[in-house]
Amino acid sequence: MAYRKMAEVYDELMDNVPYDDWMVMIQQMIAQKESPVKSIIDLGCGTGVITRKLAAAGYTMTGVDQSSEMLSQAKKGLESADSIKWVEADMTELDGLQHYYDMAISCCDVINYLTSLEDVEKAIKNIYQLLKKDGIFFFDVHSMYTVEDIYIGQTFSDVTDEAAYIWECVPGEENGEMYHQLTFFHQEEGDHFTRFQEKHHQRTFPVEVYQQILKKIGFKKINIYADFSLELNNWNEQSERIFFLAEK
């Protein structure tokens, strides 16, 4: 499973992730909603950066991730009385969550880890059932352009004082499918570095496919945005990240 040993160095190496841009998008989506949003479930919350930011903004938060290691990092430094509920679960298996939420979010291309249409549909159906009537679901995915023209065939790297990584993106067998082959070096004690590897599997689908699945499950008022712009339906063939807002 992805995000095991990597969880220890994730925040340090991903400090350039534009979490504040996601926060602006989320809060703007909330501002458009006619009824108030009080409870939010963050699916694929990882180390909980966005979950904690939203909790600090006054929302009642539940953070869900299938990686126990990522959730352990999310909980670090929090007081025992912290109001965030943390749940270890796969998005395709959310039967144990009974609460009905005003909003569900899934940020940072988490949905791209659902690499079959069956799993995408299963997860979105589960999310639909968690929402209150008129609840909203906000998520983003890599575009086909990003996967096939920006990532596949490329190698990325980064170095900090205590960690480094080499990240290779290789194609899968299907359109929009890729594997991330990651090698990490993490400083443990003194000048000693531990080397470990992870392999991540992602796939994206055309915008129209996600639209069809959302409609099939029962979502309405499906709005689409791109690249952190708040301009509705501004996406095109070279948009890099696609955002969906769907209402139950």
From TrEMBL:
One Gene Ontology MF term: methyltransferase activity
Methyltransferase domain location: 40-135
Chain ranges passing through the membrane: none
Pfam families listed in its UniProt record: Methyltransf_25 (PF13649)
Keywords, comma-separated and alphabetical: Methyltransferase, Transferase
Statement: the UniProt record of this protein carries the keyword Methyltransferase: yes
Biological process annotations from GO: methylation
Domain of life: Bacteria
Protein name: Class I SAM-dependent methyltransferase
The organism of origin for this protein: Oceanobacillus jeddahense
